[in-house]
């Protein structure tokens, strides 16, 4: 039976990006359906970050299209890009929290930047709600240096979610965390996704994270989508290019 397709939120077609002679993306195709988690698997240097930068308009591809919310990112002007980016959350590998600001100030920052007319009470309410979602309300007035790596990742996740993005891009969300904390972050990603009906692209080398979070795994190899399928489908493959990630 053919799988019923949900609405697509990101459709990438024939994407090409080279730096000089070096072709990084070479006709890459991918579709992210609404409410799904797509994991991009690829070796170091395969172009995962380049792809993410093209999706958020930080890099201009040489050709191809990236349709996000019905607009084609490479053709968007600055205002359209700003609008699209406000609907796309990004969880950086480094968390990108400001060390000199309290947790409260870190969470207020995107609200005050994007929603300039927002009332103080609404800011307080949204900050508290975002921290409650990750069980860290008690850290409101702490500094980032007082928190563990797992707690910082949860704060970063709360900050990413605070603008209610429709799509979230996760860059190696569990790298550097122990297995128990990694599992907590994966569960949190799934919980918040369900609650807010978001769609995600996750870059990860951590096969436990891939297994626990992916609805679809896309294997990026030599600039192309080499194959895509569920974790279980790829795990059973006899193809050496696929098997190497599961060994
Ligand atoms: N601005 C740039 N100018 C020139 N080359 C670049 C630029 N950005 C990326 N590259 C090259 O593109 C290739 C892919 O890099 P990218 O960072 O996307 O890999 P990656 O798959 O994210 O790797 P990792 O898993 O190690 O983070 C690398 O060879 C890198 O040197």
UniProtKB/TrEMBL annotation:
UniProt key word Cell cycle: no
Cleaved signal peptide residues: none
Domain ABC transporter: 10-247
PANTHER family: PROTEIN TRIGALACTOSYLDIACYLGLYCEROL 3, CHLOROPLASTIC
InterPro entries documented for this protein: AAA+_ATPase, ABC_transporter-like_ATP-bd, ABC_transporter-like_CS, P-loop_NTPase
Keyword vocabulary terms for this entry: ATP-binding, Nucleotide-binding, Transport
Record-linked Pfam families: ABC_tran (PF00005)
Protein name in UniProt: Methionine ABC transporter ATP-binding protein
